[in-house]
Amino acid sequence: MRVLAEHSGRLINHTGAGAAIGLNHVTTQRYAALFEQLFLVRTLPPWHSNALKRLTRRPKLHFLDSGLLAALRGVTPERVARDRGAFGPILETFVFSELLKLAGWSGERPTFSHYRDKDQYEVDVVIEDRAGRIVGVAVKAGATVTADDFRGLRRLAEAAGEQFAMGMVLYDHDRAAPFSERLWAAPLSGLWS
User: Fold this and answer.
1) Integer Cα distance of 54 and 86 in angstroms
2) Regarding beta strands 134-139 and 60-63, do their DSSP bridges make them parallel or antiparallel, or are they unpaired?
3) Selection from 44, 166, 48 nearest residue 118 by Cα
4) pLDDT category, 142, cuts 50, 70, 90?
5) Contact 163, 134 (CB under 8 A)
6) Does the pLDDT value for residue 94 go beyond 70?
7) Distances (CA, A) of 147 to 2, 91, 124, 132, 158
8) pTM, to two decimals
9) Contact assessment for residue 18 and residue 7, using Cβ atoms and an 8 Å cutoff
10) Host domain of residue 33
11) Are 41 and 1 in contact (CB under 8 A)?
């Protein structure tokens, strides 16, 4: 669990994760599958389009309980005060878990994935409804947003074409701000309002 916690919010490499504790990739993959069946973790498959060949094919791993993740990673409020970077993966996991909860009571039943291409442009969560409309969600632990924070969302918009409904960067602030026609910066609190 501790080793997988270090991979939460990242592309999962079962060989690398298992090697840290002397397990081969098959055994590591089985443990990850068991933890997924116990609803402790969830793998997030990559979003893909048949027209695109330059996308990564590896899933991301997320813990479903951000408190458990923080405990396994040794992230305390004091550590976050000293090193804000330690908070990013926990916040991303928290947002993903909240999105899953919101989708659970929705009649839409969207699918979730992530976007990452060979040029390292990425979007943390891609939500697709049954009609094929796509919303991209990037998570930022900071209180400011710049145009660079939308690079992955712009690349996803290009890849998805007309299917792209909107993209947003969720960040640590209290106001929403438009960045272009279908791109927004939105406060994390927007998940509940």
Assistant:
1) 30
2) unpaired
3) 48
4) confident
5) yes
6) yes
7) 35, 21, 17, 26, 16
8) 0.91
9) no
10) 2-191
11) no
